[in-house]
Design a protein that fits this description.
InterPro entries: Allantoicase (IPR005164), Allantoicase_dom (IPR015908), Galactose-bd-like_sf (IPR008979). The protein is mainly beta. The protein contains 3 helices and 24 strands.
């Protein structure tokens, strides 16, 4: 059976686990394939980005409304939900959250994973591997489980087993995305410009100066979002010459060509201007004050609620691993796209 440790919330170990990408987030396209029972509340609630809530006076025709997945009582076996991850990824750990489920939580859980296409899952012939063995859950609690080692395999689906029945509010599957362009590289196919910052291509927002309203990780999500809540917004600054910044580790080293800065839904709170710097580093977070940062785009103004496109002044023969977007003086961005050609063993792919 795979080894794992349960972590206490609000510890450095927990912070290290939760700094990974949530592969089970609805924001990246994760969805429920099937569930054995959803009598009280739908399994898709587990994938919501926002924390679970409790509304005391809210009921449905089947009973108390709950913000999570809740199955009916008296199951003689157990319930399962099969989930397709937004992107294939290697799993580092989980948060099985039973918030607001007090007398009706799932007493135990296990999690399996598989690599499969849709037809294989639907036919029931997928080969499942246990990644979290059966373990106890408490009511109204976050349960952080860190695997002893990240999985060697990048998985496409997980199966949550709920023993014997009850409620799970949220499920977070923390890990690292396995970019699809790795498959393209094996085929020796020369690609066009790729958004190297995109979460689906392995990009990761590793640091930001301020996340007062919303996190920097939103900048590299798919699509253009639905409102200000799924962008990055900093608090208002009151200090002269203030700026805010985000560092994005690219999914692969690349020769950088273009950048897109999207202020969609930011109408009265977009930044006045921005700059772009880049560097090459072997560490995940090289730090905002690193002397190796090179300016590849100087100050350019931004406007409200639109996509802005710029050519970068990056050297054509130098591959970079990180970009730093600096906004002046503060405000909100919806998405950042960094287009370039991958550098693989010195070649452009």
């Amino acid at each position: 059976m795979p080894a794992f440790r349960q972590l206490q919330p609000n510890t450095p170990e927990a912070a290290a686990l939760t700094s990974n990408i949530d592969l089970a987030s609805a924001a990246i396209g994760t969805r429920i394939i099937s569930a054995t029972d959803e009598f009280f509340a739908e399994a898709e609630n587990m994938l919501k980005v926002e924390p679970a809530v409790f509304i005391a006076e809210k009921f449905t025709e089947r009973g108390k409304w709950m913000d999570g997945w809740e199955t009916r009582r008296h199951n003689k076996t157990y319930d399962t939900a099969i989930i397709k991850l937004g992107f294939p990824g290697k799993i580092h750990g989980f948060d099985v959250d039973t918030s607001h489920f007090t007398g009706n939580h799932a007493p135990e859980v296990s999690i399996d994973a598989a690599v499969a296409d849709e037809a294989t899952i639907q036919s029931g012939s997928a080969q499942w591997t246990t990644v979290l063995p059966r373990t106890s859950l408490n009511p109204d609690s976050h349960h952080l489980f860190a695997l002893a080692q990240p999985t060697a395999q990048a998985y496409t689906h997980i199966r949550v087993n709920n023993y014997p029945d009850g409620g799970i509010a949220r499920l977070r599957v923390y890990g690292t995305v396995t970019p699809q362009f790795q498959i393209q590289a094996q085929q020796s196919a020369k690609s066009k410009l790729i958004d190297l910052a995109f979460i689906g291509n392995g990009g990761k927002a590793v640091a930001g100066s301020n996340e007062h309203f919303t996190p920097v990780s939103n900048l590299i999500l798919p699509g253009r979002g639905v409102n200000m809540g799924d962008g990055w917004e900093t608090k208002r600054s009151r200090t002269p010459n203030h700026n805010d910044w985000v560092i994005i580790k690219l999914g692969a080293p690349g020769y950088l060509k273009e950048v897109e800065i999207d202020t969609n839904h930011f109408i009265g709170n977009f930044p006045q201007s921005f700059t772009v710097h880049a560097l090459s580093s072997s560490v995940e977070n090289p730090g905002a004050t690193n002397s190796q940062w090179e300016e590849i785009l100087g100050h350019n103004p931004l406007t409200a609620h639109r996509q802005h496109y710029f050519k970068l002044n990056a050297p054509s023969n130098k591959a970079f691993t990180h970009v730093k977007i600096t906004i002046f003086p503060d405000g909100g961005l919806k998405r950042v796209r960094v287009l370039g050609e991958r550098a693989v063993d010195g070649a452009k792919l």
